[in-house]
Specification:
single chain; 96 residues; 55% helix
Length: 96
């Protein structure tokens, strides 16, 4: 008699992504793509570039006023991003 070792496909894919260590990068890409929904259309339209490297979020903004606002909201933004990711994906924010 054969034994059945069936598993749900989503669990198998998640385990595979974890094994090849790409799941973190996928979460980073997802956060960048969700920037507008997290921060709003106004902030997103004035954000020229956004990327994550070594647990640091880099933002390039076109407005000095927006830059100051984002600096004051830095901790709140970190909490939102990490909550969306489901883990501590970003530890620091650099705004230029």
């Amino acid at each position: 008699m054969r034994k059945s070792y069936t598993q749900k496909i989503d669990l198998v894919i998640r385990e595979f992504l974890r094994e090849i260590q790409i799941d973190r990068k996928l979460k980073e890409v997802h956060l960048v793509s969700e920037w507008e929904s997290l921060m709003g259309k106004t902030v997103a339209s004035r954000t020229r570039s956004i990327y994550i490297r070594n647990k640091t979020l880099f933002l390039h903004v076109t407005s000095s006023v927006l830059k100051n606002e984002l600096i004051m909201m830095r901790q709140n933004i970190l909490e939102r991003l990490n909550e969306t990711a489901g883990e501590k994906l970003v530890e620091r924010i650099v705004i230029r």
